[in-house]
Design a protein that fits this description.
Elements: H1 3-10, E1 25-27, H2 29-35, E2 40-45, H3 57-70, E3 75-78, H4 85-97, E4 101-106, H5 117-124, E5 128-132, H6 135-151, E6 156-158, H7 161-184, E7 191-195, H8 199-211, E8 216-220, H9 229-245, E9 258-260, H10 273-286, H11 295-307, E10 316-321, H12 332-342
Parallel strand pairs: 2-10, 3-4, 3-6, 4-5, 7-8, 7-10, 8-9
Antiparallel strand pairs: 1-2
Helix pairs in contact: 1-7, 2-10, 3-4, 3-7, 4-5, 7-8, 7-9, 8-9, 10-11
């Protein structure tokens, strides 16, 4: 499939205009030198998608809110961790298109009062926020909220698993951008790396297949878990469903998904030493910010893959920066402790 054909097929889906695309693909020569092994590192700046401090979820939300509007929905419902980047972007996107946004957030070690970082931005962007204490309570609270809104005569759109399929469409289009942009930099990527595993990696895997990208797509999971076939199969299923949305018959299996949780640190939302060092390295070599929940963990994995030869010396690597800089301010104590210890 050509890039133009991919874009024509995606254009048939409902879509809300939320971003200025393409995002930049930037060479990082000082980071490349610091990492070593003759590897050339490029960063795909999806932290610069613009709206609500940017991030990868806006590519997904363009299709989600397009679908919501097409279905006549008049309110958005979502909810994840207390410092969720996705929820922050959902609140901003809802404000942009004129939909009320209700968020059900889990209290965790970074959701304390007064609100800060992403949670503070949720309020600034006009979201109605409810706080709960567990995943089970959150699920029940979202169910109850949907019932409340319907009883008020509203038609709510609840972000869920289907939106990861829409996100995969968005990231197949991101792969098209990378393929086009690398030529302008005189580069040919051997490996594309990203933090995460769901719609974002599924879309890059889909774009690789549809557009004939010959390199590898590597995912780095932001939390510890088994590197099992089942988790890879779930990502493959998202790619298959997204292909069907685009009218393509591509089928994907777990063997098409390469992802590791080895750099996920102690737990989701808890930075590792390697993560904080990767954050500091990117900051002091390129003046770029990598948040400690997602992006810095993935970058730590890329650096280790290069230095241990799992990414071959002399390769060209594109690292997809999925945003999340706003979360950094909730981790001031951990970051300063690491920086002080490194002096």
């Amino acid at each position: 499939m050509t890039i133009d054909e991919l874009r024509r097929r995606a254009a048939k889906l409902p879509r809300a205009k939320l971003t200025e695309l393409p995002t930049p693909l930037q060479a990082c020569p000082r980071l490349s030198e610091a990492v070593g092994q003759g590897v050339r590192l490029l960063v795909k700046r999806d932290d610069l998608t613009g709206l609500g401090c940017g991030g990868n979820k806006l590519r997904k939300l363009e299709f989600s809110l397009g679908e919501a509007k097409a279905a006549g929905c008049d309110v958005l419902v979502h909810g994840l961790a207390g410092q969720s980047n996705y929820c922050r972007q959902a609140a901003a996107a809802a404000a942009k298109v004129g939909l009320p946004c209700h968020l059900v957030l889990r209290r965790d070690h970074k959701a304390e009062d007064p609100a800060q970082s992403n949670r503070l931005l949720d309020y600034i962007f006009g979201a109605e926020v409810r706080m709960v204490d567990s995943v089970a309570e959150q699920r029940a609270a979202k169910d109850a909220l949907m019932d409340e809104l319907r009883a008020q005569g509203r038609k709510p759109y609840r972000i869920g698993p289907h939106d990861e399929v829409l996100g995969a469409v968005g990231y197949a289009l991101c792969m098209a951008e990378i393929i086009e942009q690398q030529a302008a930099l005189g580069a040919r990527a051997d490996t594309i790396c990203v933090t995460g595993q769901s719609g974002t990696q599924a879309g890059l895997v889909l774009g690789k297949r549809l557009l004939g990208f010959p390199g590898e797509v590597l995912g780095f999971h932001p939390a510890p878990r088994a590197d099992d076939t089942a988790s890879h199969a779930r990502t493959a299923a998202l790619a298959t469903e997204a292909a069907a949305l685009l009218g393509a018959g591509e089928q994907f299996t777990a063997d098409d998904v390469h992802n590791t949780a080895a750099y996920g640190g102690p737990a989701y939302g808890v930075p590792s030493d390697a993560c904080l060092e990767a954050m500091a390295l990117l900051g002091r070599t390129e003046g770029l910010l990598a948040g400690p929940v997602y992006v810095a963990k993935g970058l730590a994995g890329v650096i280790d893959f290069v230095r241990t030869g799992r990414i071959p010396a002399g390769s060209t690597v594109v690292f997809v920066h999925t945003g999340g800089g706003a979360e950094t301010f909730a981790y001031n104590a951990e970051i300063m402790q690491h920086l002080d210890a490194a002096r």
